[in-house]
Predict the structure of FAD-binding FR-type domain-containing protein.
Amino acid sequence: MPTSVAIKSIKPVTHNVNHYRVEKPKGFTFSPGQATELSIDKDGWRDETRPFTFTSLNKWDELEFTIKSYDDHHGVTHMLGGLNAGDRVLLRDAWGTIKYKGAGTFIAGGAGVTPFIAILRDLADKGGLAGNRLIASHASERDIILRDEFEGMAGLETIWTVTDDSKSSLLQERIDADFLKRHIDDFGQNFYICGPDAMVSELRDILGDLGAKVDSITYEE
C-alpha cells in the first residue's frame, strides 16, 4: 500500500531540476542507489506512478529526491514542478538493482546521475571514495547536476563533457569507445552506468568489447 507523505521543501538544483524533501515514514529504509514509485496525491494523479531514486542517506530524518522536470508534456514531472511545501505524494516500497560493488567508474547521461548521488554521498560520508570516478555527460554546463558537490568530494575524480554548449571550456565529446579508451586505462574495474536506455545499451556493448567483464557492469535492469 502506498503511504501519503508531505513535501517539506522544494529547492532548485539547476534550471530544471529540484530537490524534493519529503516526510520519512517511521522504519522506512532503502539502500543507496535504490528507487521507489512515486505519484502525486491528488485526484487524477494517484495512479500515475513514476520511478525516482532516493538521493538522501538512510540516516537523514527526511527523504530526498532529485528530479528533473520535463515540461514538454503534461506529465508527472511537470506536475511535480508546480507543487509546493505541504502538498503530498504517495510513496511505495524501495527497489532497484544499482548497488555499490566496489571502486570503479560511474558513467551518467544527464539525469541518469541521480542513482549515483546517494551512493557517492554514502561513500563520502564514510571516507571511502578513493579510487572512484564520475564521468557525466550533459547538454550544457547549466544542466550539470550537483557539480560543486561532486567536485568537493574528497577522493572522487570527476570528468564532465557537454554535447550542446559550444561556449563551454569543458570537454565537448560523446561518451563513445574512443572517449573511454582515452580516459580509462583499466577495463577490469567496476563500471556503473545510468542514463537513456540507448546510451546504457551502447555503453554496455562498448565496455564489453574493451575488456570489461559482464558481472563488473552494473546498470538498472
Summary: The chain has two domains: 3-91, 104-219.
